[in-house]
Amino acid sequence: MYFDAHCHLHEFNEEEIRSFKDYIIVAVSDDLESSIKTIKLAENYSNVLPCVGVHPWSIDEAPVSCLKDIEKLIALYEVRGIGEVGLDRKFVPQTFSKQLKFFEKFIRLSVDYGLPMNIHAPDAWRDVYELLIRHDVEKAVIHWYTGPLDLLEELTAKGYYISINPAVEIQKKHMRIAAKVNLRCMLVESDGPYEYRGVRLTPKLIPRLLKVLAKAKGVKYEELSSTIALNFKRLFKI
Length: 238
Prior knowledge:
By secondary structure, the protein is an alpha/beta fold. It contains nine helices and ten strands.
């Protein structure tokens, strides 16, 4: 089995989803509607771990009332995480104040329900870190991290995980993170079906990603794969 710590599974068609049977997939959501879809996918596919939330890019159109609806989903269903949630100063800075309100609510849900957070934070890496620390969030994965190396050390010292993406082969700043992060804090993700520089990301790129990372880290493929699997199982309790 392979382990994908961050995938927008609801955006794939049924045929593709069935083809991912050899992958344990943490399926993240973008809004209330996709959160419901993700939960239904988890009911139909045993290899899917559902996360609910509102993506920072979706917050402009999201009513505040949807936060109560998402909490109801957490209370009623076997939700395994909160995501994709976070802050974004890079792509949607105009909604940052509203992002903060939503993110602080999701932090409270993480603490109250003991659920790991699956976090998006371009150019808001430290904002996110300081909020996690302030509210004593124990479990989080920072997806596709490309932030400062000194903050990387602070994040991992607190036990937070960093997920590495197949884009690492063509994005130098992400490779710099992959080379630096401690293996005990590393996860891998697809972020599928996002397209990055002409590459459509899917879980099926993860076997190649593991080989690339083993080479970059100077460790055997088996060691890296085993460690990442243990990290994943520890975080998501499987």
